[in-house]
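Protocol step 4 of 6.
Sequence for Transmembrane protein 161B-like (Saccoglossus kowalevskii) entered exactly as in the expression construct, tag removed. Do not edit the line below.
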Amino acid sequence: MGLFGVQLVLSMTMASVLSKLSPHFSFARWLLCRGTLVRYLHPSDEELRKLSGIIPASNNVKGRGRRDRRNAKDVEDKNFTVPRNLNIELDTAPITVIDAIHLQYYTEFQWLMDFSVCALTVYIITEIYNESTRPKAEFNLSLVWIILVILFVLRILYTLTAAYFRSEDTGEMAMCITFGFFFFVLAMVILIIDEDILELQLDQAYDSFSGNASTFLEHQDLESSGPISMISFKLILACMGAVIGAFLTFPGLRFAKMYLDALKYSKDTPMKQVFLHINFLMPFLVTLAWIKPISRDYIQDPSLGKKLTGHKEPILTDEGFELSRMVFILLLCLLRVLLFNTHLQAYLNMAYERIENMKKEAGRISSIDLQRKVARVFYYLCVVSLQYTTPILLLLYTTFLLKTLGGYNSGIFDEFYTGDSSVLSTNQNSITVANSSSTSAESDTTADIATATKQFTLAFAALRNIFTMLFFRGVLSFFCWWLCLTWFVTSMFGIVYYTYFTIS
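Step 5 output, structure tokens:
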């Protein structure tokens, strides 16, 4: 309890709320089923027969003509055909919980959104508590919640991507592999850009990690020039970036399609179109914030500060500028959440578009295939919802990790992540003193527990010295920037594809 204090009580409270409140209130259910999303209902068999002019079956069809007998046979057959240009008017209905609960991936969507909200609550309260009290011996337990959300998001993205590999359509699998290799090459090119142009701070992260790891190995009487080379370090980052790019391929393509459709349905509301354009371009603007010549060098130019404030000083400090980039990411995530219903409704309208496009075609279509055209749109609603929200959550909670583990505006990490090898020796001395003073008074069993505790504490202290603030700032800053870049690149590819290579 001394290690966690108030945070442990808060985490246990939120875990209880998550288990007890979810059956009664769910943020995911509120997003989908609060009445703002409208789905299209497929026409029934009776409606299709009536519109196509098929005569109902009769007990006596011997006296009928050949055409009437064929119509009667169609009535008995559930899979009858109708003209494609049939004048069909689709009915609409608001989405309810009864409708959504049977959808594919609904359980995953509900659990992810509800857990993310609880993790966000824990993180915000913990940050306020840490900033107000600045405890010196408490581990930030909200990091566990944040890491769990990221792991859940990656698992869902893996599941959605794996479904394309199991599909009969090999084109989807080929697209994931192609984008994976493309982003691997792109990451390798980006990682060789000088830090004076693209300030990801990876060089400082590697120097900090390599130096502290070498110091740790020296304390263990192991000779080593370093745990890993710079090339291997960047190669690992490139491989991880390629996997993330493959995961975000279809979410980016789906977002591009919903963005184009949302623009089409909001022609009468120019203000909404402005927000849609800003929402689409925000990831690109965030990536520009890490390009030093057009962001930091301009914002922190003393001449700019003199024009705005009258004093020849930068308008933002180094830490203030880095925090402003995180705030920019938070605004991006907030805007995308606010436009969630607009994009999801644009997706649901695909059912109406499919029927309208079908009316322009010649020939006939079976009743089952026609109904599937409409029903499949609603059936994959939760899949599309996950494709829309998972990149938001991944970017948002990675930013939280960057803020906390990077030690921005927090005094906790000045002690926990000093990167100084003297901390390791201090911990060793303190543990030795504590052990020598307690061994004489404790039994053998208690001594074993104390030994295990000191070993765990020593290992944890060693990890804190190896993975420093500089390391987390470089690696997590890279992933925040990379998520925005891949999200925007896949969306831009979707814009080009749906604009120039598709008919509908």
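Step 6, annotate. Residues 44-87 form one domain.
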